[in-house]
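Translate structure to sequence.
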């Protein structure tokens, strides 16, 4: 069930009227898009495409995805960008493939993953946009979905700002064999899942079709409530 963000008028950071009563222009300005980001473009490139498709001057994504990573990206439009602090700190879930550099027994793999559940310390990669100093992040769950030889399919629920590529390396460090991440997809961002997503082509088609379809792909900002986690 969706949870609605409700604030007293005196606490609101901007004027909010009932979502269903908004004009299409107001609906877009106070809207969010839950996008299935494709592999290839950077997150900032996707923002630029969204602005062009929707016809707005400002939008922002809640949690950057590397060019090679696909999946759930929540994008706030115009006035909704004021909710960025909520979107950026929401919990995330990923599914990825980790490749071990040497064969390891399954029970050892599962034990190593279990040992990484909880609070861990990570050093951001050299090419990251943040200062390279160790920082603590929490792993809520780290499930081994499948093992085929040296390939491991994992599902991770984690605190925002966790580096999954680094986590994949940490699995290898635990096992003493080395490892790296081959593929990654974000499956949840806060309360939003893959089932909530639309593609870039869906957006193009909706904005070509008119108001009814636009309201189906642009959601009111009130959806961002306690469920962001």
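Result:
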């Amino acid at each position: 069930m969706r949870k609605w963000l409700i604030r007293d008028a005196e606490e609101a950071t901007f004027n909010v009227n009932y979502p269903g009563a908004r004009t299409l222009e107001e609906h877009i300005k106070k809207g969010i898009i839950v996008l299935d980001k494709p592999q290839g473009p950077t997150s900032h490139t996707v923002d630029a495409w969204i602005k062009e498709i929707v016809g707005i001057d400002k939008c922002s994504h809640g949690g950057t995805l590397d060019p090679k990573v696909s999946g759930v990206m929540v994008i706030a439009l115009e006035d909704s960008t004021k909710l960025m602090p909520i979107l950026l700190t929401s919990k995330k879930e990923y599914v990825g493939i980790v490749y071990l550099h040497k064969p390891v027994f399954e029970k050892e793999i599962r034990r190593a993953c279990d040992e990484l559940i909880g609070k861990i310390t990570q050093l951001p990669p050299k090419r990251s946009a943040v200062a390279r100093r160790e920082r603590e992040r929490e792993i809520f769950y780290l499930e081994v979905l499948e093992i085929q030889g040296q390939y491991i399919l994992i599902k991770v629920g984690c605190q925002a700002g966790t580096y999954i590529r680094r986590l994949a390396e940490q699995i290898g460090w635990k096992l003493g064999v080395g490892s790296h991440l081959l593929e990654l997809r974000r499956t949840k961002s806060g309360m939003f899942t893959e089932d909530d997503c639309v593609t870039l082509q869906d957006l193009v088609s909706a904005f070509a079709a008119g108001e009814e379809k636009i309201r189906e792909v642009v959601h009111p900002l009130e959806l961002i409530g306690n469920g962001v986690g």
